[in-house]
Amino acid sequence: MSYNAIKQSFDLGDGRIVEIETGKLAKQADGSVVVKMGDTMLLATVVSAPEAKEGVDFLPLSVDYQEKYASTGRIPGGFLRREARLSDYEILISRLVDRALRPLFPEDYHADTQVMISLISADKNIMPDALAGLAASAALAVSDIPFNGPISEVRVAKIDGKLVINPLLSDLERATLEFIVAGSEHDINMVEGECKEIQEEEMLEALKFAHDAIKVQVAAQKELAAKVEKAKTKRVYNHEHSNEDLKQRVYAETYDKVYEIAKSASAKHDRSAKFKEIQEVLIAGLGEDVDDITKFLAKKYFHDVQYDAVRNLVLDEGKRLDGRQTTQIRPIWSEISYLPSAHGSAVFTRGETQSLTTVTLGAKDDEQMIDGAFINGYQKFILHYNFPGFSTGEVRPNRGPGRREVGHGNLAMRSLKQVLPAEDENPYTIRVVSDILESNGSSSMATVCAGTLALMDAGVKIKAPVSGIAMGLISDEKTGKYAILSDILGDEDHLGDMDFKVTGTENGIVACQMDLKINGLSYEVLAKALDQAKAGRLHILNEMKKTITEPREDYKPFAPRIVAIKIDKEYIGAVIGPGGKIIQEMQRETGATINIEEKDNQGIVQIFADNKAAIDAAVARIRAIAAKPEIGEIYEGKVKSIMPFGAFVEILPGKDGLLHISEIDHRRIEKMDGIFEVGEMVKVKLIDVDKQGKLKLSRKVLLPKPPKPEGQKPAGEAAPEQQA
What we know:
Elements: E1 6-11, E2 17-22, E3 31-37, E4 40-48, E5 61-67, H1 88-101, E6 113-121, H2 129-141, E7 152-159, E8 162-165, H3 169-172, E9 175-183, E10 188-198, H4 200-226, H5 244-263, H6 268-284, H7 292-317, E11 332-336, E12 344-350, E13 353-362, E14 368-371, E15 376-379, E16 381-386, H8 403-417, E17 429-438, H9 443-458, E18 467-475, E19 482-486, H10 490-495, E20 498-505, E21 508-516, H11 523-545, E22 561-568, H12 572-576, H13 581-590, E23 593-599, E24 602-609, H14 612-626, E25 634-643, E26 646-652, E27 655-660, E28 681-689, E29 695-698, H15 720-723
Parallel strand pairs: 5-6, 16-17, 27-29
Antiparallel strand pairs: 1-2, 2-3, 3-4, 4-6, 7-8, 7-9, 9-10, 10-21, 11-12, 12-13, 13-17, 14-15, 18-19, 18-20, 20-21, 22-24, 23-24, 25-26, 25-28, 26-27, 28-29
């Protein structure tokens, strides 16, 4: 039996074709598509519950992106040998899609909705993450689920000075900027990526280029949906109760009070307590016999009051919840070496947001192994971000990092990665850990700042300090008024229209993350936000420089040391030894950790220890093993065996030479009996290496010549009587 699949395709603009197919796989889902580019195939499905649950006033949307190991012909690692919980990489892709889709659902749609994207076939050179948003949106487009799309996502990169859409993986390492951009045919609503100290104008150029590509992909989805009968009629729903009289009462009783509290420039917890008190009085005033739906609506309308009051305060009076002007940054203080035993540490505090960040320097064995279906290998720079409940005064069980922690940590990692020293200048595996101790807005940017300070405190020779800032937007579509807010609070993020995080050095932007909750952000407003962010970044950077201006000259005394030496490839096996015997013996006897790998046709040996003596001992032994015997060099060798014709002497580990009986002494030696003992040390000189590589040694050339017997003439000179 075969199905008549419906297909739609488009050109990326360079001859590469992307195909979208529906009606063949996963037909019981509300919507399903397969997106194909080359040999890469993504299956995206979407299912939404027929009705919303009682008392839900938000969209319960879940987005999961998962890579099937079979797609790349691999079997998963670990004990179970099957796909398990999502990896950090899969979580990051899930977040990219979620952030692009969520703002486009109707505000009053509250049914449980699940989007699943699976990588089912992979081309090693085509990155599937840039197609995940397209696949998810196309699945929604061919369904009957209400959605104000379509949208799409693309990767835009500048490679060899030219902007490219969805570049090949092999070309991406040459990119000077790389962003994932999402949007509809009218607007951009999500950006995330990294770059190498670019200017604001260059970033805007890349976003416009990406948006042009998105418009083509959105048009293709509309054409596909027009061919699908189910997609022509969207489902009818009613997920919100309403009570207009109650709404007017809530506004009349609370708006002025909320506005005054918002205007009072109070601290976060004081402000929250006052808002809560107003709400409690409101609910109590409804009477004891009021039903749960009315209470629910009253709380919802009170939230709407807060939303309107805070936004109007900003737009009408230019004032913010904490009393700042729109461009003003909260007070900053920082400190380094706060933790005496850490290799590097820093405390960075901006307003009511605080990060305690540590840096740990490790060896090659500490590298993080990445075992994904598409991405696998090792990475030597690790950044972890922790957000415990106490940072916001909440009681919350510690269940490990959630998606938010993974996403925030990734943004900070992208930022700091750009300024790390080159790999040949930095032998360490570096782990940065940011523990958020207080939070009221932009803890990820505090992580970037604290991470920079901690790296410099650890003596890591970063290229330049990095700072970060979170920008917000309050806008009114009816009046056209808008205000761009620097260094936003948590409430301003929640009640605002934009969260735009920008990180950079004095020379330019190194990473960004933007989420929009509205339609219609013009490039003019975006350019203004970028300029305002630059001023804020530089202000924060100057405050950081009051604590430390450049990396320490040396690592902390107790920090481990790493020495890297190069040896000829042919000696790698000799250093390791049979079954690892030699390298294990060296580690046991010296106390150093030794790693060796082949790179660029050479052996790279890293010796890691917490004291110089251990490193020196290991280096000496490795150099001895890997040294090439040089003719004319003098060696202190060990007698390994004695033969009738001479002795074999080990001048370097694993390198024996023949000390012939005629080269032992100037005097004639008839037999080897009693001349040497096995294990005896003897000083010899390498006098020749034959064509087979055999070493010829001499001891007698190092001994003084014996005096000639008295009256003996040089050879060839006749005696006096013979001359007569």
